[in-house]
Amino acid sequence: MTPVELSRTVLHAVRRAVDEGELAVAVVPERVVVAPPGPGGCGDYATNVALQLARPAGQPAPAVAELLRTRLLRTDGISDVVVTGPGFLNISLAGGADARLVRDILRAGRRYGHSDALAGQTIELHAAPEVRALVLMDAVARVLRAQGARPQLHCTRPPEDAWVRVLGVPEDIHVRPGRDALRPVPAPVDPTPLGRDAARWALLHPAPHDRPRIGDEHLVQRESNPLFRVRYAHARSRAVVRNAADLGFGPEPGPVNASALHQALADHPRVLAATAAHRAPDRLARHLVAVADALAPLLPSVLPLGDEKPSAAHRARLALAEAAGTVLAGGLTLLGIDAPAHL
Question: Where is the Arginyl tRNA synthetase N-terminal domain positioned along the sequence (predicted)?
């Protein structure tokens, strides 16, 4: 169960409690936030939804939490729910959750994390007539489409030919006056000499309010370059899948001791939703770096060594590595950056 699915599960429990008269609230929240437990918490995720509902329901928060706890314990995929503090719900997922997460990713492919949350919504984006603003608008539009929206792109003048040809800025931008809602700190120099992938990363990886660095550091193939780490991790994930096939075995999700990587992969849908909501592709870029860094320690143990025979542990690690590579490829694609299988 991913954080997004858990959020929907908790929200469903709230709605059922309201429909059946156990909670008397006029307005049900549109969404429920779940996050790793804070100090004093326990389990896999925690939510403060009971505290939010207590005043409208006219009940103490612990009573609301206990009511929801009873409902959540009857839900498949949840093994335990503990109420802590003033009324926080701490939720433990059932065993095998990590394997299910990997299966979900492999089933969805690069579309893992895509949703219909914004389906039917037409969202207008207005960018300043500057290269970074237009690249940022393009990346935001890609993520919005992944959430089901129909973005319309606007600028006060057409993009320069090099921005379209080299950087992949779309040509079909509506030229019309309007408020420049997307106005990041401009690039200090022309980024096109870096080429499409490095230039887009240089413009998108920093937060919009930070000054981007446009230099050869984005081209070097070493660990100091975050773009290289992300693309190298993806290429290695593809390589171990190919090498495993040569050895006669394939991926099979199962238990793997890699909590940081599982957490990063589970967070991917939430990161995409936040990227769309805040118009902030830097969130996705930094998330991909976190996935790549969490994947790196796993890769040396994926394939058997010497005369070792492939085991269930190797198949589980292979599945997890393939899932991580899939998330990296999907995220890079949404940023408009290539994810090569060989590097």
Answer: 4-93
- Of 221, 172, 161, 173, nearest in space to 197 by CA: 221
> Residue 298's Cα: distance from chain center in Å?
20
Task: Let me know: does 241 contact 321? Beta carbons within 8 Å.
Answer: yes
CA nearest neighbour of 7 among 26, 35, 41: 35
Q: Which of 165, 219, 256, 254 is nearest to 343 (CA)?
A: 219
In degrees, rounded to 5, the angle at the alpha carbon of residue 26 between the alpha carbons of residues 21 and 31 is: 95
Q: Could you identify the residue written with the tokens 């909590």?
A: 259
User: Mean pLDDT of residues grouped by 10 in the chain (343 residues)?
Assistant: 83 92 87 85 87 92 94 86 93 78 94 95 95 98 97 94 96 84 95 98 97 96 96 98 96 88 95 96 98 97 91 93 98 97 88
Structure tokens that stand for 54 in this block: 């207590």
What residue type is 201 in one-letter code? W
CA distances from 116 to 110, 146, 150, 178, 299 (A): 15, 8, 11, 28, 33
Residue 134 is predicted with a pLDDT of 97
**H or E stretch at 296:** none
Adjacent-strand bridge partners of 83: 89
Amino acid at 237: S
Helix H or strand E encompassing 78: strand 78-84
Question: Rounded distance, CA 182 to CA 141, Å?
Answer: 12
CA–CA dist 134, 168 (Å, integer): 10
Q: Could you write out the three-class secondary structure of 98-120?
A: HHHHHHHHHHHHHHCCCCCCCCC
**Contact of 88 with 253, CB cutoff 8 Å:** no
Question: Which strands make up the sheet holding 174-175, listed edge to edge?
Answer: 122-127, 150-155, 174-175
Question: Whole-model pTM?
Answer: 0.76
